[in-house]
Amino acid sequence: MSEKKKDKCEICSHELVYATQLEDRKELKCEFCLKSDIVNIYCPNGHYICDSCHSNVPIEIIEKFCEKTDLKDPFEIADRIMMHNNFKVYGPEHHVLTPAVILTALKNNDVKKPNGDDITFMDIKEAIKRASKIPGGWCGFYGTCGAGMGAGIAISIFTGATPSKDKERTLANQMTSKVLAKIADNLEHCCKRSVKISIIETLKFLKDKFDIVLNYEPIECRFSGINDRCEKTNCPIFT
Q1: Any idea of the CA torsion for 141, 192, 208, 159, to the nearest 10 degrees?
Q2: Are the beta carbons of 20 and 142 closer than 8 angstroms?
Q3: Rounded Cα–Cα distance for residues 111 and 198 (Å)
Q4: 53 and 37 in contact (C-beta within 8 Å)?
Q5: φ/ψ (deg, to 5) at 135
Q6: CB within 8 Å of 143: residues ≥ 6 apart
Q7: Considering 49, 72, 89, which residue would you say is the last residue of a domain?
Q8: Are residues 98 and 3 in the same domain?
Q9: pLDDT in tens, 9-46
Q10: Which helix (H) or strand (E) holds 17?
């Protein structure tokens, strides 16, 4: 079996280093904002791009698109955004994309919150704000995929969950756990797949818990050709 291809530096295309031990971390300056940080993902040639610089432009794209679109299909909304040339194959912007897409689809389908309130663009902005705090690499380093957490954020905002609301907090955590169980699939990590799985499981969850039926199916993957690590037919969203 051939060795798996590794993530590459966006500056020089060298394979990235993933430091799993504290002593292997390095203090580096971001190539763009020049802010120094002690990092666990970096290029052996000394290149490093912070999460903020990696995802600032994509987050602006997410926010602007979700504010203006009248699309109702969450998979189409996600694909339209991910097809933008400033949206990378991998990155923490996918953590933000997941809840923004879910809430935008619910809003455009005229779905009300459980308390009867409308879903507003301010709810979407709140989701973006929360999800933008989830760093890159959490799937491997912390055992929690950011896209899966994004689904939990969407349900948290949908239900009005807080740490002191027992039922709502439980639902948000159940949502995240259901997505993570599916993302833990023994396949090569793929942010696009994680986003699609998060949407699939959220639609199932909304039907099961709230009797909200949105009959949308994943679109055939449009990103396989730009991902040299694609699992192709092993991936549940490839076709």
Answers
A1: 70
A2: no
A3: 19
A4: no
A5: -70, 165
A6: none
A7: 49
A8: no
A9: 877 878 888 888 888 889 998 887 788 989 888 889 98
A10: strand 17-18
